Amino acid sequence: MTVADSPQGPRMRIDDRDRLTFCSNDYLGLSADPRLAEAMCGAATRYGVGAGAAHLINGHFTPHQRLEEELAEWLGVATARLFSTGYMANLGVVGSLVGRGDTVIADRLNHASLIDAVQLSGARLSRYRHNDLDELEARLSRAKGERLILTDGVFSMDGDAAPLAELVELAERFDAWLVVDEAHAFGVLGEAGRGSFEAAGLVPGERVLRVGTLGKAFGTAGAFVAGAAEPLEVLLQRARTYLFTTAQPPAVAEASRAALAIVRSEGWRRERLQSLVAAFREAASVLDGVELMPSATPIQPLVVGEASRAVAMAHRLADRGLLVPAIRPPTVPRGSSRLRVTFSAAHEDDDLSQLLSGLRECTTIR
Fold it and tell me: How far is CA 343 from CA 25, 100, 223, 279, in A?
């Protein structure tokens, strides 16, 4: 395990060595923004450093309440509920909507937290090939009990997006819930950063719930579930990962409020990300011995094939001071090991040049 001794950012001190990183989910470069630190310090002075109890006891503070209201207003939904982590949010929302006798139809490339959520819910798990709408429809037609379609908005290892318009249509036709994990989309996709639905020009319906994390584009910690009032009220009563855990520190919620204000007002950060991704894809498309996956997001995987080659390439990059992780089985299928490159709005043009130079060198490894 590596140990960092500096703020999160493109340039970090890790294991006593300076590194240029391309592996963080700090997509907008907010985790070390002094405005967030100022908001957190002020709230810690006023509210202390811990919530001390679950939300429904006496651990729900004014910053929590205001953040939930502001998230709901930003997304144009009735309600948003905070969770301590994105993993807990996914466990909570799925377990609140379905149980034994019900069926969850899930994309095969969903995040581990979504897979675990179904298993813990007791519902039957039916998995369809990645973004295969025909197979999804067939499985929906055979499903028993309450139906729930479960998908990532942006898939964490491939960087591609779910076909939301078609998923919404199928959910409506089969009277199914649609739960979308927007961890890698909120703050990043859409003109205003409202995520996958805004990017697709869609307005979520009453049976759509969206899960977002605050530890990625927002640069803080925690998560939320956003949607219509009725299912969020059910979640409030049934979600064990909400009911039986201490709330996140109110100071973190206040820092997230500052982050949300920046997400809403500084669209140049998303424009910068788009510019970096476009420049990278143009240059990486001619690299020998790697496959650039079809992603328009800050997640830019380069498939290299065998795990041993991916590890060797990551080590060669590390020798040059570049931190780019090798992703290999069982995280991805055998034969599709990859270098997973992620970008931040805080990356500079020279950072991109260094990355491309390192990649050109290490692609000679066979």
Answer: 8, 41, 21, 11
Q: Label residue 148 by pLDDT band (50, 70, 90).
A: very high
Q: Which of 64, 111, 184, 347 is catalytic?
A: 184
* Catalytic site includes residue 184: yes
Q: From start to end of the chain, where are the E strands?
A: 11-14, 17-21, 79-83, 103-107, 124-128, 147-152, 177-181, 208-213, 223-227, 291-292, 299-305, 322-323, 326-327, 337-342
Q: Quick check: is 337 catalytic?
A: no
Q: What is the pLDDT of residue 366?
A: 74
Q: Which of 24, 216, 336, 344 is catalytic?
A: 216
Please identify which of the residues 156, 196, 337, 344 carries the catalytic annotation: 156
pLDDT digits (tens, 9 = 90+) for 261-282: 999 999 999 999 999 999 999 9
Give the HSE-up count for residue 206: Cα atoms under 13 Å, Cβ half-sphere.
4
| CATH class as words, domain 11-28+267-362 | alpha beta
Dihedral, CA of residue 98, residue 100, residue 101 and residue 103, to nearest 10: 50
Give, in words, the CATH class of 34-265: alpha beta
131 with 107: CB under 8 angstroms? yes
Residue 234 is predicted with a pLDDT of 94
pLDDT at 31: 97
Strand partners, 125: 104
User: How far is the first Cα of the chain from the last one, in angstroms, to the nearest whole number?
Assistant: 26
Domain boundaries, the chain: 11-28+267-362, 34-265
Q: Shortest CA distance to 65 belongs to which of 241, 265, 257?
A: 257
DSSP character at residue 321: T
